[in-house]
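Input chain follows. Return structure tokens only.
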Amino acid sequence: MNKNPMGRMPMPRYKLFMPDPARLTIGQLRAEARAGALAARVHAQVEDTLRKEDRNGKPFWEIRLRDSGDALTLKAWNSTPQFTAAEELKKGVTVQVEGEFAISPFGLDAQRWNLRPLRPEEAVELFEGDEVSRAANEADFASITARVESLNDPRLRALASAFLAEFGPRFRRAAAARVNHHAFRGGLLRHTAQMMKSADSLSGAYPQLNRDLLLTGALFHDCGKLWEMCPPETGFEIPRELRGELLGHISIGIEVANALWRKLPLKDWEKLAPDAEEVRLHVLHLIAAHHGELQFGSPVEPKTPEAIALHYIDNLDARLEMIFSAYEKQTEVSPGVFDRVRALNVGPVKPLSAFAAGGM
């Protein structure tokens, strides 16, 4: 038996791997397979295994794999050696899958695949992300940190800095959603960084907006998801947590902001205007109102310019991420037209290319 950080799995007892195919993430594999079938290797974690039967009553295994940005489902039929290996797979183990991949009418599919457990150092690398995703995570955190340090109000700067210092590691791996937008490990960091960039730009276009308050609201608006939608240190699955299920991220976010606020040296800032209590209430209002409407889960509707702006910045970033993701993941049902995205209620159309001066 070979042991990896996530569990135990025997080495495969079947044919050797193809000679040195490229190692790709599942997202990269999906994109490249659009151009035609290819041989590749993928590192991923087993999210679930399910034994099923086909229409003739013959058993097969459905294996769902996930990495930091996407998911892949394999099928192991009872007439193949993969069927025996699938029986021994445990949820949570980390594996390398090597095979031939293509886009079928049902999505990304694999043929003649084999697998082996990841070595410990490979598993660590998997959860840290590939080079591109690690660089993006670092850039997003640096972008957020820089904007926090630029806040003029010392109370808001201290509040935001305390959040990053206390919850930084958890913030880096939390997801922003389970299915629709930024629904992946590190998705909340990406969503928040982009929202803070947008909030910064919008503050320049509308100088009436309180930049310090709007940026702080962008940082804290979804902070409750650190407990509602946060994968473990060695996992991609987003577990259901009692606190998140009973309270929801808006209620948790208000609690987090209040808990951090109480630790601030507020007596040092007693003479500052506006009053600290007024500042705190406006921060809480941004968290409470960011869904925009009562029917969408906000306990109160936006009642300030910053609350209105934050709601639309949040909605804009979520919708743009969904349509950009659709170009990578949805089936192209006709040239330039993609399969319907339920959350957007449209079949996305390929965007117009940017104008190239001097082009024919």
